[in-house]
């Protein structure tokens, strides 16, 4: 803007416009502009300086800053060990753990090989498993005063002491941590042992997560076992009833039955999408209507934006099956099921409501607590899996009473980057 304003002035004496006349050093405008730039630069420098000083003060004392550094490094290292003791995770974690110990080099091993080495003296890596043999055998921390070769120290190598501590899983030693430094004092020995125990705790968390996954897979298998006896028998009977009277209808039902069972008994993935689960429900209800006829009526209200939401595999179909078996089958006359999927901000909310016979709330609480066997297994199974995956606040919400029907609500996050359908 300054250059455009100056270019409009006329050079005195010749009447011509000159774009540079206002930039002459003796111009008052030039002086004012220079002063403005200098003031602005000083203001910026002062502002940045104050921000740096303020952020430095926010970190607190030296002890507080050291605590933050330690916790931050431990947090980052823990993320890489949650998958277990593997080379990729160990390599990333070792960088953070070496910062914690302040040593020249840090290595992580399992019982067979060195998984990761970070820092100096990597020429000692081939000999580490020999040095760690006693630790892996006895489960006791060992200090090796001369881990390096002093004969080579004058040729660019260094003589290191090594502290090697065991990583235990229960009563077994599954690996070791080795910290290398010019001298191994008592502080380094204690710190290395603590780091080894911390790694063991991360591995226990990884094992717990793996156990939860296996449990969820077992519960899905239980759901499949629940589906197979009664539903398959009833569906095949319904199909058989159409073979002579309506062969085309029988063929259609066979195709739907094959698609339903293929989806229900698939062997890959613990998660699916709302859209896939609704397709499964459509096939299920088509087969049930072949048996019940007009006694089963269904309404759908689905918001398109929630169709791609990830949900645990076989989490909606058992709820619809519960509505048919325990709600409408025992009811006189026709019954109605309403399935709604709504966008609720950061969550997708799915409700399945029937106007069937309902349930006693006390009996329902007993079922969900696992105190009643053989009844409403699907409800208990889905409720338990939702709590495992998303937390207790995401369990099923069930409104019911004898003779008043049942409404089941499931609420899951729309964003689930850790889960793939």
Overall body shape: elongated
Average pLDDT rating: 77
CATH topology of the largest domain: Heat Shock Protein 90
- Structural class call reads alpha+beta
Second rung of CATH, namely the architecture of the largest domain: 2-Layer Sandwich
Give a summary of the structure in a few sentences:
By secondary structure, this protein is α+β, with helices and mostly antiparallel strands. The chain has eleven helices and twelve strands.
Explain the overall architecture.
The protein has helices at residues 2-6, 28-58, 62-81, 87-101, 125-138, 186-243, 247-264, 274-292, 317-328, 361-368, 377-390; strands at residues 105-110, 114-119, 142-144, 161-169, 172-181, 271-273, 296-302, 310-312, 335-344, 347-354, 397-400, 406-413. It has 421 residues and is an alpha+beta fold. The protein has 3 domains: 2-58; 85-208, GAF domain (Beta-Lactamase); 246-413, 2-Layer Sandwich (Heat Shock Protein 90), CATH 3.30.565.10. The protein starts with a helix and ends in an 8-residue tail after the last strand. 51% of the residues lie in helices and 18% in strands.
Helix/strand layout:
Elements: H1 2-6, H2 28-58, H3 62-81, H4 87-101, E1 105-110, E2 114-119, H5 125-138, E3 142-144, E4 161-169, E5 172-181, H6 186-243, H7 247-264, E6 271-273, H8 274-292, E7 296-302, E8 310-312, H9 317-328, E9 335-344, E10 347-354, H10 361-368, H11 377-390, E11 397-400, E12 406-413
Parallel strand pairs: 7-9
Antiparallel strand pairs: 1-2, 1-5, 3-4, 4-5, 6-8, 9-10, 10-12, 11-12
Helix pairs in contact: 3-4, 6-7, 6-8, 6-11, 7-8, 8-9
């Amino acid at each position: 803007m300054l250059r455009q304003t100056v270019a409009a002035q006329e050079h005195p004496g010749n009447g011509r416009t000159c774009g540079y006349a206002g930039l002459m050093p003796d111009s008052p405008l030039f002086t004012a502009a220079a002063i403005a730039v200098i003031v602005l630069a000083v203001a910026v420098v002062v502002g940045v300086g104050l921000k740096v000083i303020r952020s430095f003060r926010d970190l607190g004392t030296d002890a507080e800053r050291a605590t933050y550094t330690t916790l931050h490094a431990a947090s980052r290292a823990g993320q890489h060990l949650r998958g277990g003791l593997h080379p990729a995770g160990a390599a990333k974690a070792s960088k953070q753990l070496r910062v914690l110990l302040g040593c020249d080099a840090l290595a992580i091993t399992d019982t067979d090989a060195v998984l990761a080495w970070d820092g100096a003296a990597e020429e000692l890596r081939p000999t580490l498993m020999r040095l760690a043999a006693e630790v892996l055998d006895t489960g006791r921390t060992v200090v090796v005063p001369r881990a390096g070769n002093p004969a080579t120290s004058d040729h660019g190598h260094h003589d290191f002491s090594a502290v090697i501590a065991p990583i235990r899983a229960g009563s077994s030693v599954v690996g070791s941590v080795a910290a290398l430094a010019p001298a191994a004092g008592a502080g380094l020995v204690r710190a290395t042992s603590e780091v080894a125990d911390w790694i063991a705790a991360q591995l226990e968390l990884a094992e717990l997560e793996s156990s939860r996954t296996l449990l969820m897979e077992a519960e899905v298998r239980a759901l499949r076992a629940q589906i197979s006896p009664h539903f398959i028998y009833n569906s095949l009977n319904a199909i058989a009833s159409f073979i002579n009277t309506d062969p085309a209808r029988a063929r259609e039902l066979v195709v739907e039955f094959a698609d339903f069972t293929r989806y229900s008994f698939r062997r890959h993935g613990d998660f699916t999408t709302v859209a896939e689960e609704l397709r499964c429900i459509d096939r299920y209800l088509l087969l049930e209507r072949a048996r019940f006829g007009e006694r089963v009526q269904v309404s759908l209200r689905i918001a398109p934006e929630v169709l791609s939401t990830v949900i645990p595999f076989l989490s909606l179909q058992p709820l619809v099956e519960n509505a048919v078996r325990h709600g409408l089958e025992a009811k006189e006359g026709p019954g109605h099921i309403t399935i709604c999927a709504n966008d609720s901000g950061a969550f997708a909310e799915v409700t399945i409501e029937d106007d069937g016979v309902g349930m006693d709330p006390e009996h329902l609480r007993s079922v969900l607590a696992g105190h009643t066997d053989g009844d409403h297994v699907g409800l208990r199974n889905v409720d338990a899996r939702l709590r495992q995956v998303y937390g207790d606040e995401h369990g099923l919400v069930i409104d019911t009473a004898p003779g008043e029907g049942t409404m089941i609500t499931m609420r899951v996050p729309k964003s689930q980057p850790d889960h793939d359908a």
